[in-house]
């Protein structure tokens, strides 16, 4: 049988040059002197087939297999051997080609070996598996050397059985058994480990179960308490929202009333000021009239006295003319002086009166401006208060919104330049007709602040930004990943025909075309109807499959739940949105600041006008006082002049006032005085009437003053009460807002709910607050009685239980694996026993024939040293050469031992043929006759086996089909030549090389 067709070697040991051996015959001889490199051919085959032991290759390390250089040839960097096999008989069952090339290359620099099968790189294990199929393994009979023969013959029975193990093909079984034993060891180790873990977990479970049950009980109680708390918080939040709205309205109304009443009081005070001013003038005028009245009375009395004197004079004729002249001149002089003074006072009064008129005109102008600026200041204050209320509402709303789980939307929009793919909030993108706003508002809910992104990657970056910056949370809607499921077409046709159908929500909202998927996602499964009745009827007809909302805000939810009631303005998020667009907090603050500046300017002008007005009043009063003083002086001078004129007239008969002589001849002095007295009495009566009129007017004015004072007092009391009430309302509002913020914060942080969410969720009403409080106390006591718990205990127990169950299952599985491995090992042992026993029996059957051919007679047989343990028994050989009875192999000669070994080895080869056998000077110890028998006996096996025989024996060379001569013409470098079968020439060649 031709199996190995070619060997190619380069750089391997002494093969410095590329060397090729082509094998075309079954029995090949390799001849040459010792040291020429014959055995390197055998080593090259073993090395190429994966031999790892450098000792077996007659070296100390792998570098020794690389050509080390010679005098004329440098050392090689690598060694490479290629074996070419004929695979037409499928000896390599795993390789489906007729020719199989196996190559091994060792690189001295990298110290790595590379393996190739048919040019494709492979692993050492692949090569070793191929070697198993050829039988060329360390313990097989495929390579038989002189050392192998002597070792086998002299080996102990236990060592000798290795060849039979190899012949029986037990290597693969041993390999499988070794792998199974390793796996079993690991499995046993795992079994122990898993069992230990299971035991540990089993001990932990009861404790953790107790903790978990305690935690579960605590959890149930705390959840019930939280449910009650949530109900109370939600109820309080909604109630507080209503109360806050009511308090804000009340505060706003009180502010308006307070402002209005304060304005009324100011107007009344202005009227009082005017009244006081007029009353002062009236008092002054009455005082002046009374003075004039008194003077007239005195004048009348004086005239009456004069009249009596005149009448007495007329009766007296003894008048001293000289004395009268002196008196007359003195009176005239005094009269002239006082006349001058009188004219001066009159001029002064005229000047004062002109000043008074001018001051009063200026006062009226300033007072009008004062009132105008006062009114403007009040209007500014009122406008500022309104804006302040609006700002407070917005800030409250903002504080409330900041507690919204979706408050991150503003942060996203504010940082639009830093992020990518932001389309906008849903609220900024959609547009809804007014008649649909309430219904759409209820559907939109928190989605108003959802942020639309172009892609999921953009959304992810936005969420990561909020997380890293701790800016709240956001509901992100990436356009590229939204997968809505709108109402199906067949259902849509049915719904459209329903009474009261208004439209599908996603068709009643407008948005940019590329964002339509957002509408379908939010509104795609909701229907709008005219009223609640239409909604309930439609819900029943479609089996409550979709959500339905009426135009007035009543909802029929999927699966039949309902939500509804009154709808306030805040529920219309689109209306609120418009307000927010018109009045954002920053704009209001700016406007308030502007109004503050205007108010300060107005107030400054107002204060300036007030000072001017007060100064004018003081000036007018001063001028009036000056006029009164001057008029009083004039009256005194007038009276004095009249008295002087009367006295002068009495003396001279001339009237100084009228610059005419007394008409004594027309009428007597007494008659004139009587007429003047009558005139003065008339004037006195007129003054009395005027004083009475002024007094009456003053009384009315005083009554009005008292009335205004009373009204103002009452108004001030009301104003103070309202201010107190306003202060209380503001205090209540602050407390309520603070409490409400805490409640909303608790709802947001504890339950992830916003005020809008609460409006959408139906909470059970607390029917009996007393029972609820009692239940809260009970739960609190029960929670305290439970004591400290770890809420992780439930999960820890579940994980431990899951882990325990896993290890129980795993333990069973590993135990099953161990049982299977034990079964596999048992079956392998059975198979190895069977195969081993079969090979021994077969060899025993073939051994007598081989023994007789090699010994030319005699008998031999194999025996077990331990028949009871086939797997561990050794193999002994019982031989009887012709004419001898041997009890111990050691009693045989060296040649006889070799023949015994060869008999056994060839018997094995006969029953288990190998495709290739290498005989490396195996026949060296034999004498020529036995060598010839040996060589001829080898020839009997060439039909099934190819032989490569390294030899220097003639009998062997004569029986080979072809001979290769191995020489070393250059020291250290092997050269191979093919030789003709001329024994004499071969001998000469060998002897020549020996020399």
UniProtKB/TrEMBL annotation:
Which residues are in the SMC hinge domain?
A: 420-539
Task: Kindly list the GO CC terms recorded for this protein.
Answer: chromosome; cytoplasm
> Which residue windows are coiled coil?
170-397, 677-739
Q: Which GO terms describe its molecular function?
A: ATP binding; ATP hydrolysis activity; DNA binding
TM regions (residue ranges):
none
Please provide the Gene Ontology terms (biological process) for this protein: chromosome condensation; chromosome segregation; DNA replication; sister chromatid cohesion
Q: Where would you say this protein principally sits, based on its record?
A: cytoplasm
What keywords would UniProt list here?
Answer: ATP-binding, Coiled coil, Cytoplasm, DNA-binding, Nucleotide-binding
Residues the record lists as binding ATP: 33-40
Which Pfam families does the annotation name?
A: SMC_hinge, SMC_N
Q: Where in the cell is it found?
A: Cytoplasm
Whom does it interact with, and what assembly results? Homodimer.
Functional note: Required for chromosome condensation and partitioning.
The record's similarity note reads: Belongs to the SMC family.
Q: What does the entry note on its domains?
A: Contains large globular domains required for ATP hydrolysis at each terminus and a third globular domain forming a flexible hinge near the middle of the molecule. These domains are separated by coiled-coil structures.
What protein name does the entry list? Answer: Chromosome partition protein Smc
């Amino acid at each position: 049988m031709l199996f190995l067709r070619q060997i190619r070697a380069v750089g391997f040991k002494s093969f410095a040059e590329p060397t090729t051996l082509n094998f075309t015959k079954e029995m090949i001889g390799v001849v040459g002197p010792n040291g020429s490199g014959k055995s390197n051919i055998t080593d090259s085959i073993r090395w190429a087939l994966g031999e790892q032991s450098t000792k077996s290759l007659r070296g100390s390390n792998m570098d020794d297999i690389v050509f080390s250089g010679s005098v004329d040839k440098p050392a090689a960097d690598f060694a490479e051997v290629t074996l070419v096999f004929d695979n037409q008989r499928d000896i390599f069952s795993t390789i489906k080609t007729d020719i199989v090339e196996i190559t091994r290359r060792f690189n001295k620099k990298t110290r790595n070996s590379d393996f190739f099968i048919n040019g494709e790189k492979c692993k050492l294990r692949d090569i070793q598996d191929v070697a198993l199929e050829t039988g060329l393994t360390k313990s097989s009979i495929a390579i038989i050397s002189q050392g192998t023969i002597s070792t086998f013959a002299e080996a102990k029975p236990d060592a000798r059985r290795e060849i039979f193990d190899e012949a029986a093909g037990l290597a693969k079984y041993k390999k499988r058994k070794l792998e199974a034993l390793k796996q079993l060891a690991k499995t046993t180790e795992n079994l122990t480990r898993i069992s230990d873990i299971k035991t540990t977990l089993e001990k932990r479970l009861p404790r953790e179960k107790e903790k978990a049950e305690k935690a579960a009980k605590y959890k149930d109680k705390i959840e019930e308490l939280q449910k009650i708390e949530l109900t109370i918080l939600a109820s309080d939040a909604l109630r507080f929202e209503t109360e806050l709205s009511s308090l804000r309205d009340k505060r706003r109304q009180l502010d308006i009333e307070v402002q209005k009443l304060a304005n009324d009081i100011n107007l009344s005070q202005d009227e009082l000021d005017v009244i006081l001013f007029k009353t002062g003038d009236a008092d002054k005028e009455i005082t002046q009239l009374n003075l004039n009245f008194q003077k007239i009375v005195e004048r009348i009395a004086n005239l009456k006295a004069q009249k009596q004197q005149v009448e007495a004079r007329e009766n007296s004729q003894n008048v001293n003319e000289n004395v009268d002249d002196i008196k007359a001149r003195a009176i005239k002089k005094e009269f002239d002086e006082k006349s001058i003074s009188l004219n001066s006072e009159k001029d002064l009064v005229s000047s004062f009166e002109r000043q008074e008129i001018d001051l009063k005109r200026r006062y009226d102008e300033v007072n009008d401006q004062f009132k105008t600026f006062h009114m403007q200041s009040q209007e500014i204050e009122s406008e500022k208060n309104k804006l302040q209320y609006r700002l407070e509402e917005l800030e409250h709303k903002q504080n409330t919104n900041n507690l919204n789980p979706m408050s991150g939307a503003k942060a996203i929009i504010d940082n639009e330049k830093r992020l990518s793919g932001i389309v906008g909030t849903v609220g900024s993108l959609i547009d809804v007709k007014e008649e649909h706003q309430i219904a759409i508002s209820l559907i939109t809910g928190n989605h108003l602040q959802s942020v639309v992104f172009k892609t999921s990657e953009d959304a992810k970056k936005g969420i990561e930004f909020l997380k890293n910056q701790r800016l709240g949370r956001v509901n992100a809607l990436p356009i590229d990943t939204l997968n809505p499921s709108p109402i199906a077409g067949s259902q849509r046709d049915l719904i459209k025909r329903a009474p009261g159908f208004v439209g599908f929500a996603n068709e009643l909202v407008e948005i940019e075309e590329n964002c339509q998927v957002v509408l379908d996602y939010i509104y795609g499964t909701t229907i709008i109807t005219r009223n609640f009745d239409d909604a309930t009827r439609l819900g029943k007809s479609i089996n409550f499959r979709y959500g339905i909302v009426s135009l007035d805000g009543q909802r029929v939810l999927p699966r039949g739940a309902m939500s509804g009631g009154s709808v306030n303005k805040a529920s219309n998020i689109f209306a609120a949105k418009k307000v927010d667009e018109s009045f954002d907090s920053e704009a209001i603050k700016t406007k308030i600041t502007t109004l503050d500046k205007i108010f300060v300017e107005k107030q400054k002008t107002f204060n300036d006008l007030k000072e001017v007005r007060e100064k004018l009043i003081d000036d007018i009063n001063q001028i009036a006082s000056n006029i009164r003083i001057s008029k009083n002086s004039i009256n005194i001078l007038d009276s004095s002049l009249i008295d002087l004129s009367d006295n002068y007239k009495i003396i001279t008969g001339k009237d100084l006032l009228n610059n005419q002589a007394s008409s004594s001849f027309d009428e007597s002095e007494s008659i004139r005085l009587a007429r003047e007295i009558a005139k003065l009495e008339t004037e006195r009566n007129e003054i009395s009437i005027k004083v009475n009129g002024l007094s009456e007017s003053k009384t009315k004015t005083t009554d009005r003053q008292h009335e205004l004072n009373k009204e103002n007092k009452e108004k001030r009391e009301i104003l103070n009460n309202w201010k107190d009430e306003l202060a209380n309302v503001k205090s209540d509002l602050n407390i309520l807002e603070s409490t409400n913020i805490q409640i909303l914060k608790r709802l947001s942080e504890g339950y992830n709910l916003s005020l809008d969410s609460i409006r959408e969720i139906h909470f059970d009403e607390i029917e009996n607050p007393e029972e609820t409080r009692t239940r809260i106390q009970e739960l609190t006591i029960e929670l305290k009685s439970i004591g400290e718990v770890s809420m992780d205990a439930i999960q820890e127990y579940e994980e431990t239980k899951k882990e325990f169950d896993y290890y129980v299952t795993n333990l069973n599985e590993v135990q099953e694996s161990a049982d299977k491995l034990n079964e596999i090992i048992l079956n392998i042992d059975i198979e190895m026993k069977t195969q081993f026993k079969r090979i021994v029996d077969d060899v025993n059957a073939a051994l007598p024939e081989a023994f007789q051919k090699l010994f030319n007679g005699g008998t031999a047989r194999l025996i077990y040293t331990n028949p009871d343990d086939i797997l561990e028994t050794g193999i002994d050989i019982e031989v009887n050469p012709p004419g001898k009875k041997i009890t111990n192999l050691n009693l045989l000669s060296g040649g006889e031992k070799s023949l015994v070994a060869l008999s056994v080895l060839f018997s094995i080869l006969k029953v288990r043929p190998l495709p290739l056998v290498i005989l490396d000077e195996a026949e060296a110890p034999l004498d020529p006759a036995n060598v010839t028998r040996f060589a001829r006996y080898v020839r009997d096996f060439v039909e099934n086996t190819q032989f490569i025989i390294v030899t220097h024996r003639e009998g062997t060379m004569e029986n080979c089909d072809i001979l290769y001569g191995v020489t070393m013409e250059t020291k250290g470098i092997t050269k191979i030549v093919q030789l003709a079968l001329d024994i004499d020439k071969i001998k000469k060649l060998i002897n020549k090389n020996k020399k």
